[in-house]
């Protein structure tokens, strides 16, 4: 029952994080600190989807390394490219 | 003598292993595409910032919420069959998820119509080339995901899955979550970050 409740909470958290991303864009926020916040928001959403929606929490380390490794590699490389330009 | 340490075995991947290799391959392709966008943007920062403002961020955000909600429906479908063996309920959640995918496609089509009627195409400039190719590649994955979910929903409706046999539902669910996961990065990257 507890995990069922968590799925609702995670769904709402994902929507709230999406709205915060939209708000930052709508308000015209830009610059490296904002980009970092947006990327961290995307990363948190990605972690929630991988661990809770895809149910990869507790699976073999190899699979988690592949999935989280993909997520963080993409996020960090994007952050580096924005750090170069901004 | 009874000092045996009880070690918890790691969980198995949900769904079929084959779908996971497919998912990893898809993620690799999308990952390279995202990094390519970011790297090319370094040389074209002003152009990317200028034309990014022409995108419909409202529709992008609504579509993100639609996909997340559709993914949530798929989670409910998996829980319904896994915990209760309710295949009819499972199929209803899957149909709701497919409807979510349909809403995503309709909204995205409005966005494309707006751009195409303004004469924008892949060859307009580098930003639109990335915007159109990334989102259209994702668009095709939404269609494929909907087809997979539809096949699973029909089988579920006919009693093809149960509490002890639901590997197909988990496989389709994992693929659909991958489609969601990719959009979670695509939306801020292409529509918002500047």
Main features:
heterodimer; A: mainly alpha; B: 194 residues; mainly alpha; Four Helix Bundle (Hemerythrin (Met), subunit A)
SSE inventory with pairings:
The complex is a heterodimer of chains A (86) and B (194).
Chain A: H1 2-26, H2 32-53, H3 61-85
Helix pairs in contact in A: 1-2, 2-3
Chain B: H1 17-43, H2 45-52, H3 57-84, H4 87-117, H5 126-157, H6 167-192
Helix pairs in contact in B: 1-5, 1-6, 3-4, 3-6, 4-5, 5-6
Transmembrane segments (chain A): 35-54, 61-84
Organism (chain A): Cocleimonas flava
Subcellular location (chain A): Cell membrane
Task: Walk me through what this model shows.
The complex is a heterodimer of chains A (86) and B (194). Chain A contains 3 helices and no strands. The mean pLDDT of chain A is 93. Chain A is 84% helix and 0% strand. Chain A has 86 residues and is mostly helical. Chain A has one domain. In chain A, α2 packs antiparallel against α3. Chain B is mostly helical and 194 residues long. Chain B has a single domain (17-192), classed as Up-down Bundle (Four Helix Bundle (Hemerythrin (Met), subunit A)). Chain B contains 6 helices and no strands. The relative contact order of chain B is 0.19. The chains are: A mainly alpha (86), B mainly alpha (194). At the A-B interface, α1, α2 and α3 of A face α1, α3 and α6 of B.
Mean pLDDT of chain B: 95
- Run of helices and strands of chain A: HHH
Indicate the overall shape of chain B.
elongated
Say how many strands of chain B there are: 0
Largest sheet of chain B: none
- The share of residues in helices of chain A is over 70%
**Strand percentage of chain A:** under 5%
Summarize the biggest pleated sheet of chain A: none
CATH topology of chain B: Four Helix Bundle (Hemerythrin (Met), subunit A)
Report how far apart the termini of chain A are. Answer: 47 Å
Q: Uncertain runs of chain B with pLDDT below 50, 5 residues or more?
A: none
CATH class placement of chain B: Mainly Alpha
Determine the N-to-C terminus distance of chain B: 64 Å
SSE order of chain B in H/E notation?
Answer: HHHHHH
Rg value of chain A: 15 Å
Within CATH, the superfamily of chain B carries the name Cytochrome c oxidase, subunit III, four-helix bundle
Most extensive interface, residues per chain? A-B, 47 and 49 residues
Please tell me the CATH architecture of chain B by its name: Up-down Bundle
Give the domain tally of chain A. Answer: 1
């Amino acid at each position: 029952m507890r995990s069922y409740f968590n799925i609702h909470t995670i769904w709402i958290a994902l929507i709230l994080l999406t709205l915060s991303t939209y708000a930052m864009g709508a308000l015209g926020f830009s610059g490296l600190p904002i980009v970092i916040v947006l990327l961290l928001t995307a990363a948190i959403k990605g972690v929630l989807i991988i661990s809770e929606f895809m149910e990869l929490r507790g699976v073999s380390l190899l699979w988690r390394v592949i999935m989280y490794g993909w997520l963080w590699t993409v996020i960090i490389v994007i952050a580096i490219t924005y750090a170069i330009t901004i | 003598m009874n000092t045996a340490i009880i070690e918890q075995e790691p969980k198995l991947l949900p769904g079929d292993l084959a779908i996971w290799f497919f998912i990893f391959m898809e993620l690799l392709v999308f990952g390279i595409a995202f990094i390519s966008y970011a790297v090319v943007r370094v040389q074209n920062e002003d152009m990317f910032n200028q034309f990014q403002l022409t995108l419909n961020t409202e529709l992008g955000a609504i579509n993100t919420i639609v996909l997340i909600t559709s993914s949530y429906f798929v989670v409910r479908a998996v829980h319904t069959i896994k915990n209760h063996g309710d295949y009819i309920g499972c199929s209803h959640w899957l149909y709701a998820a497919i409807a979510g995918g349909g809403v995503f496609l309709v909204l995205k089509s409005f966005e494309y119509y707006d751009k195409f009627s303004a004469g924008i195409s892949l060859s307009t400039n580098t930003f639109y080339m990335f915007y159109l190719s990334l989102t259209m590649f994702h668009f095709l994955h939404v269609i494929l995901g909907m087809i997979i979910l539809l096949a699973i929903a029909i089988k579920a409706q006919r009693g093809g899955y149960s509490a002890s046999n639901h590997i197909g539902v988990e496989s389709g669910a994992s693929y659909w979550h991958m489609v969601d996961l990719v959009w979670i990065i695509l939306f801020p990257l292409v529509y918002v970050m500047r």
